[in-house]
């Protein structure tokens, strides 16, 4: 560029020099020829320097483009590295949360399945219009909702319905604004899983569910993990204290405990004390269900001295719900037997009136009216059935055992279900029923071809196949207690209730041979048998 300017200055200097001559000399032919020659040389020189400048500009432009591309590459790499670092950090936080949840309650998936199983049994939507429920749900202070009723009256299904509602509908915060996120934790205490009703297991399940609903890496997750590592302890009330000081004060927390009376008295007491301590610093709404008159129900207010609301099973709204339940069951079983309109209406009215609020009792009687084995029932049979309805739930269970259509397995099918360390699938049960201790010869021809017929024909209406994982379980957890109580009666009096069913009762609660069959033999054999 400088050389280009120098050429211009030199040419202009020659022009000025030429213009300084006399006019006649300027017009002379040699001078004009000289000027043309100088202009031509100047033009060629400018053109050369112009081309050089263009080439230099192209070089600089290319270099600038290369530098820009290199800078973009570096920035892209930096952003990619930053993104990977953030993603890795997030993954590490998720893994930390998962490890903590597994330590708190490794069997939570079983509790979740139990909730889904109960949820499928009914809706119990009548509770949403109950004044006590609405006051408890929207209370701005720690409260307890106590649900109580007879055994088999639908308390567990009601709790499962409330859990589903709380998980789907936002709560109200202290400033009465809708849309706040709430935290819900539940525990279904069942006596058919004796190892799951300890204080540590209940607290671990509650904390596990709370952690699962929090963002990975939040303060509570880190502090709780440090607490458990430092003291090498099981989940306890101190862990709830950490939660109380970590979460925003306006976050509502719902804790629901079903069948609290199924736990040992000390376990129920410890749990209530821990929740009371937690409620001192948090907006906690506790809901628990017990049988009416259960010993733990008398300790609810002393151990949790906050405002208490009460729902007693058997309200008019619940009776209306029971009528809907009967209507649905009759409709579902209509393909098995079609009744005339007047007989059907009479049966529905009598069953609802005699049930005394017990859904389980109702379900057992409907099983009698619509047997899966195709047994014929005449009008006189229906009359006799109505005249001799069971007196209470235990009597209904006794009669259910009397009506087993196929008694080839006798008590063995119930022993296997009770003794198994985990619920058996229908395939495992089919094989376990044909395993004989000491017999090493396996004959597949003895297996029934229709495995699905085992439960309806041999279970007396007391067993059910879970549609989620095909496991065979009692239709209600109280049946487990029914067999245990019967076994105690047999041992004490050498006969079952009224001397009728001693052959069915399990005299050894955890027979090692049955346990071995259920836990090991079935899993091995199932892989070999089609």
Automatic annotation (TrEMBL):
Domain GPI inositol-deacylase winged helix: residue ranges: 409-486
Keyword Lipid biosynthesis: no
Domain Nephrocystin 3-like N-terminal residues, every copy: 122-288
Superkingdom assignment: Eukaryota
Record keywords: Repeat
A Pfam family assignment: WHD_GPIID
InterPro entries, sorted: GPIID_WHD (IPR054471), NPHP3-like_N (IPR056884), P-loop_NTPase (IPR027417)
Protein name: NACHT domain-containing protein
